[in-house]
Each structure stands twice: as C-alpha cells, then as structure tokens.
Amino acid sequence: MSAQVPLQLQKDSVAEKSGPVTAATIMAPAGAKKGLLERLDAGEVVIGDGGFVFALEKRGYVKAGPWTPEAAAEHPEAVRQLHREFLRAGSNVMQTFTFYASDDKLENRGHTQRFTGQQINEAACDLAREVANEGDALVAGGVSQTPSYLSCKSEDDVKAIFKKQLDVFVQKNVDFLIAEYFEHVEEAEWAVQVLKTTGKPVAATLCIGPDGDLNGISPGDCAVKLVKAGAQIVGINCHFDPETCVKTVKMMKEGVEKAGLKAHYMSQPLAYHTPDCNRQGFIDLPEFPFSLEPRILTRWDMQKYAREAYNAGIRYIGGCCGFEPYHIRALAEELAAERGFIPAGSEKHGIWGSGLEMHTKPWVRARARRDYWEKLKPASGRPFCPSMATPDGWGVTKGHADLMQQKEATSQEQLKALFDKASKSH
C-alpha cells in the first residue's frame, strides 16, 4: 500500500450505532505519526495486534512447548505477512515477535538454537518496523517472564536478562516498550524498572485474573506496584478471555485511582472462552494447547469485547493467543466511529454481515443483518462434549521443585513422574 490510501467507509452501518463517520485514511504521512502516549492522552483508541506464537504455531513456524520466536530469523516472510495482515485489519501497533526470546528460555530443556536471542530480536525489530512504516502503526518491543525467575535466580540475574534484550530495542529505536505475560508482579516490576531506563513509554501487562497474581496480590495492588515502578500503561494480557480480562483491568483501574495515581489501561486477552479457568488461566485447561478450537470467540464476540473495554475506560485494546487478523478487524469495526475510519481489511467484509446480501441462497441472504448475528448462540457440533472442563490444579509456582528449569532436555524419568502425577489428579 502507498501512503494516503482512502478507505471506502460503510457509513450507514457504522452510523447505526455511533453516528456519522467521516472518511479517513489508514496511512499517515511519513514522519507525522503520533507517539503512543500522545494518542492515549488525547483519548484516542489504540488497537493492538494479535497472538503471534499461536498464529504461527498453527501455520507451522513455531514449536508448541518452548513457544519461542526464532521464526523471526528462520522464516521472516511468515512473520512479515502476519504483521501485514494485522496492519490491514486495523492494528496501530506492530509488536516485535520477541516473546520468550531471552537466552535462558531459548536454551531451556534441550531447546537448542541456531540463532541467539540478539539475532532473533534484531530480526523481529526490523520486520515490525518495515511493516509499521507501511501504515500509521508504532513498533513495540516486548519482554516477558523468564525461567530464571521461576528458578529463584536473583533480582540482578533476572534484570540482566531484560537488559540484554533491551539493548536491541534501544539500538533499533522502537517506539515504546511492553513488559507482558508476567504471573508474578514482582518480576514485572523488575522488568519495568529496567525498561524505564530508556526514557521510552512503558506498558506492563500481567497474565492474571480477578484472583490476582500467583502470590495472591490483588489486581489493584499489582497495578499500583507497576505504576510506582514507572509504567504509564498497565493492564492484562493472555491466560483469560475478554470478559475476565476487562473485569480484571477494571479492578486495576480502581486500585490505581484509589491510590491517587494516574495511568492508561490496556487489555490483550485470549480469543478463547475461559469461564471454567482457575487462577493460572487456560494453561490449566485439559484442552491446552492443541484442542482449544471449540472455545474460539467469533468476530461478533470480539465486537462485544471492544465495546465493553471501551466503556470501561480502556483505550489500548488488542489481543493475545488465539487472536487472528479477523478478530482485530472486528475490534476496529466496532470502534470505527471513535477512530474515524474502518481498516483496509473491511473492504472485503460487510459490516454485520452485509456482504451476505449478495449470496445466491435466500436463507443466507436473510442473515445479512446485525440482529441475527448478535442474537445467535453458535452450536459446537460436538454432541458428547461438556460445555466446560475441569482445570488441572497442581498449585505450584516460583520456588517449587517442579518449576526448577534446566538446560538439559526433560528426561524420560522426569516425564514418567509427571505422567504419574497427572494420572492421579484426574
């Protein structure tokens, strides 16, 4: 796409809920991009992208288990294409594909590498910047929780891991930084403290639910700790569905306001329904990670999420594992009036199914309306499956022997002990 590409707005459909929308462009003139805090301070909606590790695992570029992002160096064309699809769907942020790219994770449990963490992170930054420059998008460099923290390494050791990743982000001049996917707020605080040394905007998201982090610290108290550590944006990502994540961010917002502090708020949930999850979220579900498809949210579920997040005062709204570009497009379409445009990807998607007016079958044409899709209760097509599962509840976290990490591959003896433990728990 070239700069200043006009979008064809489906004004009537959008105005139905939110009033008229003026034509806009998806591309901003070169050099005219506003920064993240500038956008949020102005009350603008920032749409994030989706879950790269899950999306690329399904496409054959990421190994489930390690969930590491070497595809940025091994298969840059796959990562670049996914970035472009999220941009076309309406994302304002190209998050570098650097999830779990710390060296201690890349070398964990026999996961040998042809690339170093630095090489992967450099490639990821270049790809994100290349695609961000094709639209009005910012580049976010991200760090996440480490095996070293779970194995009780010192604060200095863990911070050194973040610092090594940060050096690449500084060299590549990303627009802002995200500390994401932390189960323990203490480790997230350490990450924020390191990221703040750059002077760039810092967002921090925990993968927790209403029960708080794995040490029982409430969402409100977690948020206060993160803001005091230096994060300007706080929120939730991964582990839970949109409804749970929005609820948890509300609790964080209440905690920050009660403490007399200020912050912006973000939400990047799963694209899976998780009403049956416990404190650790979807990783405890028996279906994790290979049988989650029956739980996937529809695009209409996503529109509901976007509206609920917006009404809760959340202005950075995106997604994590399970989110595909069409999910992000649904967020962008729901908030089209607030943003002033719909994304390029909507050119092939009639809002609320309006494109079905062209279908050859009359009963399908009859579905070209909002009230049909809003009221639909999708069937699973699985007659003997339960509606909810019983999550695993091993009750282990930082410091437990089962979570001590190692460079060597998991042995057969170690696996047998786990298999036996799992059999007894069901």
From TrEMBL:
One of its GO terms (cellular component) is cytosol. Residues 34-335 form the Hcy-binding domain. InterPro entries: BHMT, BHMT-like, HCY_dom, HCY_dom_sf. The keyword Acetylation does not apply. Zn(2+) binds at residues 238, 320-321. Binds 1 zinc ion per subunit. GO terms for biological process: L-methionine salvage; methylation. It holds the Pfam family S-methyl_trans. The keyword Secreted does not apply. Keywords: Metal-binding, Methyltransferase, Transferase, Zinc. Its cofactor is Zn(2+). Pathway: Amino-acid biosynthesis; L-methionine biosynthesis via de novo pathway; L-methionine from L-homocysteine (BhmT route): step 1/1. GO terms for molecular function: betaine-homocysteine S-methyltransferase activity; zinc ion binding. This is Betaine-homocysteine methyltransferase. It comes from Seriola dumerili (Greater amberjack).
